[in-house]
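Could you join me in thinking about how sequence relates to backbone shape in a protein? Label the sequence line and the structure token line clearly, so we can match residues to local backbone shapes. Once you have written the record down, we can walk along the chain together.
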Amino acid sequence: MTDESQVTLAAIAGAHGVGGEVRLKLFAESVDSLKRHKQVSVGGRPLTLKSIRGGGQPVARFAEIGDRNAAEALRGQLVTIPRSALPQLEEGEYYHADLIGLPCVDKAGEALGTVVAVENFGAGDLLEIEKPDGKRGLVPFKSGIADLTDQRVVVDPAFLA
């Protein structure tokens, strides 16, 4: 793996069985997001993804992990890939990882804060914005409320109470 920025797709939740498989907490949309990558980094260590199955709590096997003890040692480690390995986006699409750290301003350009997280509880994406005073608020990532423009998010301050 290179020194370029990494994107986290999952975390190792623990061992599964005795043969070296691991349970994953998936941060990507589906197991298909992880299946397309043969080489991943787990805790900074390059590993080869041999197989992945399941939906609710996927189970993965890495070629280099052969027993339960080795699998258990990975508990809590992040599964990452280089940012460049992600599929190209269509116009108007974005990766959550690309939104984190962006400045938030109002329509006049006045600073409102910084995007610190992106959440989705089923009704659409919410931006968690940390204001200059350290307080945080959630804003729907919807047109007219929060718009991505020139590497910043233009927010209607009425929604950032």
